[in-house]
Amino acid sequence: MTDIQHIEQTIQQLLQEVPPKAGRRVSVTLPLTGINLDSLPQTGDQRYFWMRPDRGVQWLGLGVSWQCGKPGNGHLAALAEDAETLGASIDHIDPEGCGSAPRLSLVSQDDGGLLTLPLVQLQFSPSGNLVTVSPDPDRPDSWLATLDQLRSAFDTPAEPPPPPPTLTLVDQAPQAPVWLRLAEQAIEELNNDHLEKLVLGRRITLTAQRKLSPEELIRTLGTRHSRSTLFAADRENGCWVGASPEILIDLQGEHFYSEAVAGTVRRDTYETVDNELGEWLLRDPKNRHEHQLVVDSLVEVLEPLSAELETGEQPVLLKLRGLQHLHTPVSGRLKRPLHPLRIAHQLHPTPAVGGTPKQAAVEWLKSNEPLDRRWFTGLAGWIDTAGNGSLCVVLRCAHLQQERVDLYAGAGLVADSDSLAEWEETELKLDNMIKALQDA
Hints:
Elements: H1 3-16, E1 25-31, E2 47-52, E3 57-62, E4 66-71, H2 75-88, E5 90-93, E6 103-109, E7 112-117, E8 120-124, E9 130-133, H3 142-155, E10 168-173, H4 176-190, E11 197-207, H5 214-224, E12 229-235, E13 238-244, E14 247-252, E15 255-266, H6 271-283, H7 285-302, E16 306-311, E17 316-319, E18 323-334, H8 340-347, E19 355-356, H9 358-368, E20 379-384, E21 389-393, E22 397-401, E23 404-413, H10 419-439
Parallel strand pairs: 1-5
Antiparallel strand pairs: 1-9, 2-3, 2-12, 3-8, 4-7, 6-7, 6-20, 8-9, 10-11, 11-19, 11-23, 12-13, 13-22, 14-15, 14-21, 15-18, 16-18, 17-18, 20-21, 22-23
Helix pairs in contact: 2-8, 4-10
């Protein structure tokens, strides 16, 4: 008998001991052993995957027990209210004292967001692995099929990885001349003192000679980008996959962490050249100014909420695969309990993905940027019913649809930016994901 089979029987027994109550939900959490997870399992349920390879933590949600979407600019605050209401309605059964509350996945873009409580979720960490089941009261036995699919996926031997795909560029938006003209227009606006920073996005569309695998891409990203936050979500007739270098808010109890990631230069295979590039980035006035705008925006929001706040005195280098960035951590302790989605509502979008001043930049981009960003520069991550959460900005992302993939990248412009240099920065970012796809 596999551990999942034993867990299935135990959960059924526990649920039978809890009579259903009108307007209430039940979740059950148990320890999980004998299972390892390094990618997305192939199941028929809607999947959500979150991973920090360098910390050895992973979370997988399968299926839908409860779901809530909210439109508009205030969707994060509205979703926080719904999440708190849901949390208050859940009777959590934790017979082994695992101490971990049920989690909900978040996918969010500028015009709306979606929260999902999975039917089944697996949590992996150095302190132990857990499984949580949250039955849907309208379909009380649907979690059994999800758990059976999961067991089958783990019991099925992994197929050998497919050969590297041949990728062909078929479209980009906007086209290069349009993007460069728009960048020049943005720089002109930035020199008129009305705006301090604008972030322009791009999308390229590639096709392959075979179906592209989100499972293999996640596995590759875990190796290539171990210091990033990995995520994957089945959405919109495809799967969004990414490796974000930027945590917007990580909240555990009263303690929070955020980070400014802005200012970019390439890596080099020669250590001496790589170090010289990093030292240039640390000294470059344009990149330092662009970075400081992001730091200031985080502090402006977080300082009034904090009993304690600590910010790095100077940016340091965040050296990732192919790129290095200026990085400043911002951490502290809240004055009073506050839901992570309410904090995210105040922080997002930061100047790292939109611009500053925030509202003026958002309005300029809506009027001038000829790109539907969709989930790009939105948020991905999880919150739990105890008020903890970890949300990253959707960067270095891909939307996979069979043989087609859309890749996104952006560049931050300030008054002394050079449009061609900013275009080349987006090329570096896109190339980083293209290489991951070719390894998948």
